[in-house]
Design goal:
heterodimer; A: mainly alpha; 2 domains; two-stranded antiparallel ribbon; 2 strands; globular; B: alpha/beta; 33% helix; 25% strand; disordered C terminus; binds adenosine-5'-diphosphate; binds magnesium ion
């Protein structure tokens, strides 16, 4: 077999796989649109759901998802930022630093159900905090921590060394250096990280299923120990009622909204990432 | 002002300079010439402890600035770097306005009201004021290379250093900007001790009060007759020990 034949085979294989993935993605998206769009009506986003999710909208479910995501990021961001700055600005290059970096990558690849399980055991069983939005936010916060860390560290490390040196040469102390050079210069990278973290949290169901969410009977949480309804749980519960066409239809609608949310976050992350590239080329 | 005593520096096993003892007189321009890779940059960076972050960088002996060893453990490196300013080979301006760049090193140190005066003063010192006074809010990255190098010099002067280290400051500049920088260091020397690194003999001889040569890890005064001999060059001769005179 000569090189040209080999190349043709490889090309056909890569092309085929790419086509397959694209087709699959297209299939999922088009199904979601075909089934979801008919359910969407003017009030879908802003109405309370009724009749055990078979009618009405998904307002409180969306709110619940946003609360969990938002609080998770608020909890996670300071920790991620602090640990990145500690690693990049204070820790000397060496085995320990490499170890920490590897650890973040491993955590980032850990199946989310494990976070849910550990969170459930820790909070739900040992600490007995019960099923609540606080528990869910904490678990999500831990879950997105590596995502945030990786993105923020990449942003900070992409910062040209010359800026650090220029600041150092002017006699700036390390905290001033961080506050005046590192943070502003890697701002867009950080935003990208937060958005990707949010997208990851939005897509998560397993980890919050038994620890933070409920299907019905609650609107907005009134105390720290209340659970919240979320889009993810809503979809899952409705989809299990396969016999009921209204439930299934509502599930598709909620799915479309959730996808829209994730898509929006990813798009924003992408836009910000483009700006990062522009900044670093200055 | 500055004195090296039995000073050696190395990156890991690789010795850069060995057992140097020499000093630089205050308020004059000393040029340091040497081939590429001879350790000029290393020596300059040593003086403001810019090599601290490099893990395998080692030194022996002492470096005195104003009679104090800057490598003592209790040295305040930040204060040292404000006292000993360094200008790099390639100008590095921040992607911020011209004004913000000039004020960068002293933003937390002087009041908001004093800032415009400080900016004007140092921009005048580097002969840049007339060129940029109407566009201080514009991004500094829009300036030419030569203007950027003068801007970084203004930024360093704003911190009010006593010593100015210039690492081949004109090597990436056009002749006109080069001439401007050469002229402006002359006006700075009565208040600053200047160490100017270059690999051009002619430049060294035309701008400096004394010329040192770095070669094979040793620093010695230039022995060929100077174009413009001055008393201070003989003073340096006396200050350099182990010189074959
Ligand atoms: N960070 C570093 N690590 C190891 N070696 C270095 C480092 N920086 C410079 N060197 C070495 O030190 C020697 C002197 O470099 P340098 O001071 O930059 O020379 P010059 O400025 O005279 O061209 C060179 O051989 C260079 O390879
Ligand atoms: Mg050099």
């Amino acid at each position: 077999m000569n090189e040209i034949t080999t190349e043709k085979i490889v090309l056909a294989f890569i092309g085929g796989v790419t086509f397959l993935i694209a087709a699959l993605l297209f299939f999922i998206l088009s199904t979601l649109f075909l089934k979801g769009v008919p359910v969407l009506h003017a009030g879908f986003l802003f109405e309370e759901s009724g009749d055990f999710g078979r009618a009405g909208g998904i307002f409180y479910q969306s709110m619940g998802t946003l609360i969990l995501m938002g609080v998770a990021v608020l909890l996670s961001l300071p920790v991620a930022l602090g640990s990145v700055l500690f690693q990049t600005e204070y820790l000397e290059t060496g085995k320990f630093k490499t170890f920490l970096t590897q650890l973040t990558y491993i955590l980032n690849a850990t199946p989310t159900i494990l976070f849910g399980l550990v969170g459930y055991l820790l909070f739900g069983v040992y600490l007995d905090t019960g099923v609540s939005w606080v528990t869910g936010s904490l678990i999500l916060a831990v879950m997105i921590l590596p995502t945030l860390q990786v993105s923020i560290r990449e942003a900070v490390e992409a910062l040209p060394e010359k800026y650090r040196e220029a600041g150092m040469a002017l006699g700036l102390s390390r905290p001033t250096q961080i506050y005046r050079i590192i943070l502003p210069q890697s701002f867009y990278g950080m935003v990208t990280g937060v958005l990707l973290g949010l997208a990851r949290a939005a897509g998560e169901t397993a980890a919050i299923m038994f620890t933070a969410t409920t299907f019905s009977g609650i609107r907005l949480p009134q105390s720290f120990s209340d659970p919240v309804p979320t889009l993810q749980t809503h979809i899952l519960v409705l989809a299990q009622e396969a016999a009921n066409p209204e439930s299934i239809a509502q599930a598709w609608g909620a799915g479309l909204v959730l996808l829209g949310l994730v898509f929006l976050l990813t798009l924003m992350a992408w836009i910000f990432r483009t700006r990062v590239v522009m900044e670093s080329e200055l | 002002m500055i004195r090296f005593v039995n000073f050696s520096a190395a990156f890991g096993e690789r010795n850069i300079v060995q057992d140097l003892t020499f000093s630089l007189p205050a308020n004059s321009i000393t040029a340091l010439i040497g081939a590429s890779g001879s350790g000029k940059t290393t020596l300059l960076r040593t003086l403001c402890r810019m090599n601290d972050r490099i893990k395998n960088f080692r030194i022996a002996g002492s470096v005195l600035v104003d009679g104090v060893d800057i490598y003592r453990p209790e040295t305040d490196v930040y204060a040292l770097r404000r006292k000993v300013g360094i200008i790099f080979q390639k100008p590095c301006v921040f992607p911020k306005s011209i004004f913000d760049n000039v004020i960068f090193g002293v933003r937390e140190r002087i009041s908001r009201r004093e800032q415009p005066d400080r900016v004007e003063k140092v921009l005048r010192e580097v002969f840049l004021w007339e060129e940029v006074k109407d566009r201080l809010g514009e991004k500094a990255t829009t300036l030419s290379q030569g203007q950027q190098q003068r801007l970084t010099l203004a930024r360093t002067l704003a911190v009010e250093p006593q010593v100015l280290l210039m690492d081949e400051p004109t090597s990436s500049l056009d002749p006109k900007s080069t001439a401007a920088i050469e002229r402006l260091v002359q006006s700075l020397k009565n208040r600053h001790t200047i160490l100017w690194v270059t690999h051009q003999h002619a430049q060294a001889q035309s701008i400096a009060d004394q010329v040192l040569v770095i070669e094979r890890g040793q620093v010695s005064p230039l022995r060929t007759p100077m174009a413009r001999p001055s008393t201070s060059s003989t003073q340096v001769l006396q200050n350099v020990q182990g010189c074959p005179e």
